[in-house]
Amino acid sequence: MRIIDILKDEKLSLSFEVFPPKSDTNFESVKDATEKIALLKPSFMSVTYGAGGGTSKYTLDIAKNIEKTHSVPMLTHLTCVSSTKETVKQRIADMKNAGIKNVMALRGDLTPELEKSDKSKWHYHHAIDLIKELKDNDFCIGGACYPEVHPESLNQKDDIMHLKEKVDAGCQFLTTQMFFDNNLLYNFLYKIREAGITVPVVAGIMPITNANQVERAIKLSGSFMPQRFKSIVDKFGYDKDAMKQAGIAYATDQIIDLYANNITNVHVYSMNKPDVAEKIQSNLSDILGKI
Question: What pTM was estimated for this model as a whole?
Answer without folding.
Answer: 0.92
